[in-house]
Amino acid sequence: MLLRHRLTLLTLIRSKSIFALSSGPSPAAVSIIRISGPESKLVLQKISRSQKFDHRLMKYCEFYRQSGTLIDKGLAVYFKGPQSFTGEDSAEFFVHGSRAVVDMLLEELGRYPNLRAAGPGEFTKRAFFNGKLDLTQAEALNDLILAETPAQLFLANRQSNISKKLQPIREALLNFGAELEANIDFGDDIQNQQGQCWKKRIKNEVKSLITVVESMVGTAKKGILVRDGVKIALIGRTNVGKSSLMNKLAERDVAIVSDIPGTTRDCLELKIRMADLNVTLFDTAGIRETKDKLELEGIKRTRKSAEEAHLLVLVVAPANVSPLNSVINEIKWLIESFPSTPKVILINKVDLLDSKVVDQIKNALPHLKMAFVSCLTNSGISSLISNLELNVKDLTTIEENEMVLSRERHLRLLEQAYESLENFVQNIDVDTAIAAEDLRECAEVIGEITGVISRESVLDKLFSSFCIGK
User: Fold this and answer.
1) What is the pLDDT of residues 61-96, one digit of tens each?
2) Residue 150 burial (CB < 10 Å; 0-12/13-18/19+)?
3) Which range is the signal sequence, renumbered to this chain (predicted)?
């Protein structure tokens, strides 16, 4: 792996220098254009027609095309590698952010033979290969740039030092593995000196690590919801008021409302902010017996949305399914149809119900927490929103002392690590060689999280999702 990193690093050093706009799109008050690579200082000197640039010292300059045309007046700074973001020689231009200035400067940089436009995430990728940051720090940086909510910002900042917590786990695994390998090679001598105590000790240590990794799996699932958003699906039969409810939660008309059953035939998605988190609402087709092919497809998509959702709002309209026993059976049927996902039971159209009927429903199902609303009169809507916010917080709350990762890649690797540790506990008393392999596999996947061990294809895919100029 180290050889691979050295070869990749050598390739980067020998490759062309790169440039890109690293600030937001024009027009803007100020735009920042970045260069990284061995040509950085030379290009900066030529464009500014100034020879003296001290490391990290901002300088006022005029920027010219090779033809002599003035592009702009602004500031420039030179960073001598490895004391730069990428670890290479770098330079940055701070110019007025008009499209004309930015386009002309980028066009001029493209004229230099050993300079090329950077790809997405290429500056960060060079920083990674030059040892300026590890993979989780690179991911945290990208998440910081893309953060839309306070929760996402908080999560990105917490992930910047995750490798400091993962590295001791990996080192412990490698040490345990080395001890097992020594036993395989010198088993008789070790057993004569220590008996079987060493196996029990390592087994107990690994069991402690299992608890840590299991906790990380749980927090990673929460971290993914904070980063990617929570999905809430409105589920129920036709004409129970799901589309009206969607409009109330959106605070505008986004779904067509009709008395005709089966009006909603596809899943309507809407992004909103709830409890300082991004939430996607799904208004789904009503579930009922039908022979209509389009409606059947809509019901199929309803079930798919329910499977993908993190929270379900199961909507019942008692006025549509009276008498009372039918209402109770309807609620039970919905709960049994979607057993594994957290849910809120919502009784809609309460404006059509006598207060005695509402009490009867509550008394018949005392173990259930139900929300009673009327989209017509707005009764109970604010309480419903508070209820949903509490559920969203329950799904995403992470304690300050917990180790947090927030990508599907992280979760997959953590689950692999957990499985390897569980296998070790089963194998240590049966076959030491297999148990040693379990520890090696676990150390490897932990290393993949931080990038200590990585595949080029994985890195290429990861960095290609980053912003150009970062």
Assistant:
1) 999 999 999 999 999 999 999 999 999 999 999 999
2) exposed
3) 1-20
